[in-house]
Structures are given as structure tokens and as C-alpha cells.
Design brief:
Elements: H1 3-9, H2 11-18, H3 25-31, H4 35-44
Length: 52
């Protein structure tokens, strides 16, 4: 899935994740990305990873 599509399709989910209201797996699964792909995606956008 191209990165632009992920952002276009998941703006609410990414916002909720950045506010720690969604777990790491929920937006990742909705985006259809593998674990490491989603980590890279977050890093490119400077969104911190939550370890709770």
C-alpha cells in the first residue's frame, strides 16, 4: 500500500494513536501494514511509538 494512501485512509486512526487512544496494532491492521512497515511509517512522520 503506498504511504499516501495510508495517510489518506487513516487520518482519524493516526490521530487517535498519537493521542495513545489506540494501540499499535489497531491502525497497523487497518492500514494493512506489517509490524516493521508500520514502525518505519511512524518514524518517517516522527510519530512516537507507544510501549504501554
Amino acid at each position: 500500500m503506498p504511504e499516501g494512501r495510508v495517510e489518506a485512509e487513516l487520518p482519524k486512526e493516526l490521530a487517535l494513536y498519537s493521542q495513545e487512544l489506540l494501540s499499535f496494532g489497531e491502525p497497523r491492521e487497518l492500514a494493512g501494514l506489517y509490524h516493521w512497515e508500520f514502525i518505519q511509517f511512524l518514524g518517517e512522520r516522527q510519530l512516537p511509538r507507544h510501549y504501554s
